[in-house]
Design brief:
single chain
């Protein structure tokens, strides 16, 4: 029974359905990010590079000709088996203008030299091609010690323009009271997460699922705004 719950929770991690409130401690963050990516997906076409692809969680949201996952070269990333290519942390192993579109999802905060990183993205992107970039604004430190920055919508736009991009669209995710419930669950998850997947699943079901349910019921009572939100999602054109 517990094993089935864990498998269900994994499927609901990045594409949460209604029942994910019971198993996903990051329910509001993942719903908001997925919805924003879906809204921007029509601009992503042709041959696509996913920079810092991880497990390629949003691959199926894009109707593209070719999808190439890129990761920084390490035994860990090679061992995962999801990336198609690897780089040394500075230079992507591709020719100039090789891609029609680039995706970079929740990666920029881990880059210590964002200007150089964005310049490299621009180099491999064809003129007129689009970059879909997502970055956390309000979130805990994660993947320490490689968590270097948080960007406001204005700071992110400034970085992109400085790297030679034109900002086409900017979205802010979870900009209402659900943000408070999500941050509480993010804190609880770090405090209660166990080495055992079973114990972690129990903690999520008993402690974090009720917080999700409260967020669904009460979260939208706080009006949405534009200055306190979870993630920035930006589409920029080369």
């Amino acid at each position: 029974m517990i094993g089935a719950v864990i498998r269900f929770a994994r499927r609901q991690q990045f594409h949460p359905g209604p029942l994910a409130v019971l198993v996903n401690p990051f329910y509001f963050a993942r719903c908001g990010l997925r919805d924003a990516i879906v809204a921007c997906a029509p601009l992503i076409r042709g041959r696509v590079l996913d920079v810092g692809c991880g497990r390629k969680p949003y691959r199926d949201l894009f109707a593209v000709d070719d999808y190439v996952g890129l990761e920084i070269d390490s035994p860990e990333t090679r061992g995962r088996g999801f990336a198609d290519a690897f780089y040394d942390g500075r230079t992507f192993p591709f020719a100039d203008g090789e891609f029609d579109s680039v995706i970079c999802n929740q990666v920029l905060e881990h880059v210590f030299t964002p200007g150089e990183f964005l310049a490299e993205i621009r180099r491999v992107l064809k003129p007129g091609g689009h970059l879909l970039l997502t970055v956390p604004f309000v979130w805990d430190e994660h993947e320490q010690p490689f968590d270097y920055a948080r960007y406001s919508s204005f700071g992110l736009a400034h970085l992109l323009r400085g790297a030679g991009f034109e900002v086409v669209d900017q979205l802010r995710t979870v900009a209402d009271g659900r943000l408070l419930f999500q941050l509480l669950n993010a804190m609880l998850f770090k405090r209660l997460r166990a080495r055992s997947q079973v114990l972690t699943a129990v903690a999520v079901a008993l402690v974090m699922a009720p917080v999700n349910v409260l967020g669904v019921v009460l979260g939208r009572l706080v009006p949405s705004g534009r200055d306190l939100y979870l993630d920035n999602v930006v589409v920029a054109r080369r």
